[in-house]
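Hi V.,

You were right to ask for the full record rather than a summary. Here it is.
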Amino acid sequence: MPLLKTSVIQLDVRAGQPEKNVDNALKFIETAKELGANLVVLPEMCVGGYLVSDKWLDKDFLGSLEKSNKKLIEASHGIVLIYGNVFCDYSSVGRDGRAAKYNCAYICENGILNSIYKKRLLPNYRIFDEKRYFLSGDSPLKVEQNGIVKSELLNLTLGVEICEDLWWEDYGVNVSGELVQAGAELIVNISASPWTAGKNYARDNRVKNLKKILGEKMPPIIYANCCGCQNTGKNIIVFDGDSTFYNSEGSREPQGLDPFQEGILLCDPSCVSDKKQTAEPDNDEVLKMKKLAIQRAYKGIDDILGFAPRYVFGLSGGIDSSLACALAVLALGKDRVIGYNFPSEHNSDKTKNSAKKLAENLGIEYNIVPIGGIQKEVEKSLLGAKSQLPPLVKENVQAKIRYTDLLSNFAQIHNGVMTCNGNKLEIALGYCTLYGDTGGVFAPLGDCLKTDIFELALKIPEIPRELIPNENGIFEEWQIYPSAELASNQRDPMKFGYHDKLLEKVMSYKRLSFSQVMELYQNDELFSHLGVSDYLVHLYNLKDPAIFNDDLQWFFKKLNSSVFKRVQMPPILMMTRSAFGNDFRESI
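Predicted structure:
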């Protein structure tokens, strides 16, 4: 292979802000030139962002993206530059009757646009909705689009593809293989690939499978992904980057960029290391990435909102609010985080002390505002001719006072925002108060099971240990049992460890139905299938068919009846393949 020095620019792409993205890209391109790069690669849709929804239908927005091409093409003097942007063909129409649009890679060389490659495999699942906006590169074209670029400057034949084109096994069209058959000596894949747990390892396995197909013909692959935070309106999405290159053996080479951080990666495709690839991530690696993803989301909200708000937390002394608050401090610093405790007659000294201890450990401002007086006045107004209020109404009055009446107004006073701190299990079962603790700018923990919450909390020493059962998940040994504390002696009704695993399978890509769960139970296969320990089966008496059946009926009834709450939730940070929102879509 000719002498090639490649710089992959892992850009923090701001959705809907082309001027910022281009200015940032141009600075990195100049740095790459100073480092001696002759091939510079930027991510997919790095000009305007990938997740911009129906802004793809806005002519002014499209015009601003097209105008940006001139600056980037001019910046390619002395190098080959590949970057992602939309291409509009105003001489033909797409499926919606508007001008045909394509998700493209622009290949520039020495200040001239060499060619445009139009993405062939368009994802149309989960959060992806490309067929709503774009045509495939298989459609009739007026510009070269086969992805083969013969570069005079590099003395090399490049094969260019975009993100999903690499995931050929799902489509029956091996785009990478076709590029190799057409003479590609190096494949460049530009991506806007959101992070979810295990995604990077799945990509590695796809490349390994490509090696099995191509054998000795396998070329090196440059993989350029964006980083940063974008959103769909229903979900907050983080991009970890993970830009890298794969050698001709299909193995990932070491890369020096931190997850979720922008920077320049220097690649030498002629290098082959002896580094062994990990087949699957271990639990510690997954937890580390989840922790970083949540912190990145907090920072990304600044870009989405356009200002840097203070975060105002209702600290109940429970594990969820403690974790959400601690991660905000790690991401933004203690000066941007404020804690409030709103005790009523039902709040124990243990939880009040826990909230105070957390605030002291984090070094944040902490305030106590009792709600007993407000609660009495509200209940008096609600009573009217009735002698007493239903218990559930009395509970929800407290939750609404805390979030709607007090926390939202304190947030405004501090020029700040609040978060919805519910976890995935609570959201699934509707264990939350509409217009109460479901409010907020986003839900940082909304795709974390309760067991995830415990494991993440163990990674943060500032969180009081009495909130966590113990490191082995022994759910009998609580110093502070999870509770909403809206009534006397109240305990959360979930079977922690079991309901988490059940929810995971019920919401997974290959979803378990009610009848399938029953069949597995009857065949004595359910708990091994879920990965639930004998300890938990014994703890919750799940071997008893009557107890198991009643619980399962309750679980599915709660899951199905709580949709109306979930569709009104703030955007949930997506970390799995089954996040409520655009990923796991529901109708009432």
